[in-house]
Amino acid sequence: MIVGKTKKTWGLLSLASVPLVMTLGNSMLIPVLPTIGKQLQISSFMVSLLITVYSVVAIVFIPIAGYISDHVGRKPVIVPSLIIAGIGGLMAGLAAWKMDNAYWVILIGRLLQGIGAAGASPIVMPFVGDLFKNNQDVSEGLGIIETANTFGKVLSPIFGAVLASIIWYLPFFSFPIFCFVSIFLVLFLVESPPLAKKPTNLTRFLKSMKKIFKREGRWLYVVFFVGGMCMYILFGVLFYLSSFLEEAHHIDGIRKGVILAFPLMALCLTSYGTGRIIGQDQIKMKWMTVAGLCLLAVSTFVVSFNKELYVMLTALFAAGVGIGAALPSLDAFVTEGIPMEQRGSVTSFYNSMRFVGVAIGPPLFALFMKGNHFWTFAGNALLVVLSVLLVFWGVRPHKKVSQTWQ
């Protein structure tokens, strides 16, 4: 029994490497984007597409990957996806190194990375639900996965700035190495549980999904919206803070990366703690979500009144704590509340909404920054308050997840 639990622990840690790697592959380019623009002599809009294409492609392919994983298994989707993502990173690095007009080849490489990301990181959530039968273990496992995801965001600005200070295109080459390590871990340390049922044809699958959303739609739509909103606020605020540090305080490079890491570190540690606290108790999940969103609303509203650096950093640290409390609870709701045979597909829609938040956060905040600072943050604080009201309206938990969605 101990051996079995040890195997599952190593399997969980190996799975946690997947969101860590995928996050590094995208987020570590953020502090390097100005340098890439100068080296390739392209506009800021063209540079921003290197981030946007990754997220947009992932949004499209995540539901497809989720559907396939429900029918052929999680590992047969995750491993090839990591290979595709690694090839994309290698293509981008070689183009940046060897080609004169490398931009379009780099963009294609980023597109491949987005396709790989769609079949890798989002499939990890239902995989955790498959590995553990005890909901307490599932919640703790999802907390670790969310922590790994956030830890990747913590490392990304620092790691990207360090690598780019050596050679500007080194971040592209580092990604295939990370993918190879994750592939090795998943292949040899993760055991795939048997599929719940034999694969169903597409027509029957669509009917079953329609039935699930008809029966569970009220809480699912709320969880989808709130998850996307959290990622929108997170990436939008990070973009805003990155620009603010450079323009107002002339802080860039590794120093800027370290400062950006502080609110992300708060998110990382809170995610881990939340996963251990909520267990299988849906009431705790709901109140952790509400508490986290309330803290996020207050901290966002505080920033609207003050542009002092230390006030902003303190408030954004608190915002990181708030998002760190909400996300693992949302993950647990959507993972534990869906039968195994549809879990990959439903969680894939949830992850697509999170990627929508990632994709729209920076450009929308860039647009807001041209206007009034107060309304930029006060308006988004009102959006978070709306999310709190939606959680109260749509999520009605029982003490045990297994009793809730019957």
List the helices and strands and how they pair.
Layout: H1 2-27, H2 33-40, H3 44-72, H4 75-98, H5 103-118, H6 121-131, H7 135-166, H8 170-189, H9 202-249, H10 253-278, H11 282-305, H12 309-336, H13 340-369, H14 373-394
Helix pairs in contact: 1-6, 1-7, 1-8, 2-3, 3-5, 3-13, 4-5, 4-8, 6-7, 6-13, 7-10, 7-12, 9-12, 9-13, 9-14, 10-12, 11-12, 11-14, 12-13
Could you state the oligomeric state of the chains shown? single chain
Name given to the CATH architecture: Up-down Bundle
Order of helices and strands: HHHHHHHHHHHHHH
Individual helix count = 14
Q: Which residues sit in consecutive blocks of at least 5 with pLDDT less than 50?
A: 399-406
So, the CATH homologous superfamily? MFS general substrate transporter like domains
Descriptive overview:
By secondary structure, the protein is mainly α. It has a single domain, classed as Growth Hormone, Chain: A (Up-down Bundle), CATH 1.20.1250. The protein is 85% helix and 0% strand. It is built from 14 helices and no strands. The longest helix has 48 residues. The chain is globular. 52% of the residues are buried. The C terminus is likely disordered.
Characteristics:
single chain; 406 residues; mainly alpha; Growth Hormone, Chain: A; 14 helices; globular; disordered C terminus
Give a brief outline of the structure.
The chain is an all-alpha fold. The protein is 85% helix and 0% strand.
